[in-house]
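Here is one chain, start to finish.
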Amino acid sequence: MRKTRSLCLAALTILASCGAVLADGGSRRMIVAQAEAAKIFHGVGTITGIDAASGALTINHGAIPGLMEAMEMPYEAKPAKLLEGLKIGDKVDFTVDGKTLTILEVRKHASGQ
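Its structure:
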């Protein structure tokens, strides 16, 4: 099922890049947005909250090109052990799944704190 969905999404993305419009009125922009949501994105921000019990990390981050504008929001981290060693106020680089908005990797920013 997952492979079929990926193939369908790839085919729709190709059609969209050619300017195709779906029979139900869908547009190229919608198809491309769905394809983009399946990608992995990178962000930089400051930790403003940590909930180790639920594995959630709140980050005030800059714009994540192709995914979202700058904002502060909570993210689930998978696995939750990614939160170990982090504290409020730390500047971090993070990787987020564009579809689930789950943090897959987080590390203190190279400039220290």
